[in-house]
Amino acid sequence: MSAATIKDVAREAKVSVASVSRALNGGGGVTAETSQRIHEAAQRLHYVPHAAARMLITRRTNTVGALLPDLHGEFFSELIRGIDLAARARGLHLLVSSSHDGAEDAATALRAMQGRVDGLLILSNHVDAAFLRSNLPTGLPAVLLNSAVKSPSYGVLNIDNYGGAYAMVQHLLDAGHTGVTFIAGPTDNFDAQQRELGYRAAMAKHAPHATLDVLAGDFSEEAGYSAGRQLLARTSRPRAVFAANDMMAVGCLSAFKEVGVDVPRDIALAGFDDIPIARYVTPSLCTVRVRIADLGRSALEQLAAQLEDPRHATPSRHTLACEIVTRASCGGGRPAASQDAS
Question: Beta partners for 95?
């Protein structure tokens, strides 16, 4: 049996094809009674509107795009989950792409989405104002996540990387550690840069005589493991280690456990992000909580506001707060204000 057409629905509902089109696409000029009859006829016939035809009428795809640097790992799965749940609540579909291999890869992904999406969420180290001018059509709404870009043309949603890192270093120092070693993230990553700045500022303020100790990393579990091995090879090991994200902290923890280092008795360890696995490793990971799914949801809501009211919704810049979650890897008790619910 062939699929039902719009003409079949019009015949079934005893109305014109134009009336069916207006009713199913949310247009005016159709009474409530007629609209109900049309929708019931479409349901009986299992009619599915042709997407391309609907796009021509509404000039909307009801699809939003998300460009991310990677799709692997708990951070990105949580971020996508938050975006997708918020999109579904608004009847929007989600098209996701990644930019593993640099700026040209990101540009190719953006060009591939043009004409297929009504707006874009962009999280990429390669995106600056010049890149956006070159690769985004004028008028296409976009919200940038964790970005240094400052432009009235784009919404920006950042997390408080600086403040979160500062607070964690202060927490470790207040616990009695005289210094904190930091495992940094990628040098070209905005989040990583802000977290390292927060580390350096907190050390300068609260431990001005301590030596800054920064190891290179790239946000991967492997980088954290490598950093952990480097620390173990020293004649004098640190008493507290703060990794710029949880995946590196987990890798570092693995290196410590291999040689029997007791965390936190021998070395206290902390991360950043509060990915789901953080509470399930042993010992559970002290971390800076980013409500990752909420980040995705908030970004989608900001983009949806621009789509629904493009004349009056002005792109804006927001920063989401972080909080310290004290778990076993840091030792000590839990401050009431940041007690984990797990």
Answer: 65
CATH code for position 274: 3.40.50.2300
Containing structural domain, residue 175: 161-291+324-338
* DSSP label of 316: -
Q: Both 330 and 211 in a single domain?
A: yes
Does the structure show a pLDDT above 50 at 52?
no
- 200-212 pLDDT, tens digit per residue, is 999 999 999 999 9
In a domain, 1, yes or no: no
pLDDT for 60 equals: 65
H-assigned helices in the chain: 6-13, 17-24, 32-44, 51-58, 74-89, 103-113, 129-135, 161-174, 190-206, 221-232, 246-258, 292-308
Lowest mean pLDDT among 129-133, 162-166, 297-301: 129-133
* Beta carbons within 8 Å of 60's beta carbon, 6+ residues apart: 118
Distance separating alpha carbons of residues 129 and 151, to the nearest angstrom: 7
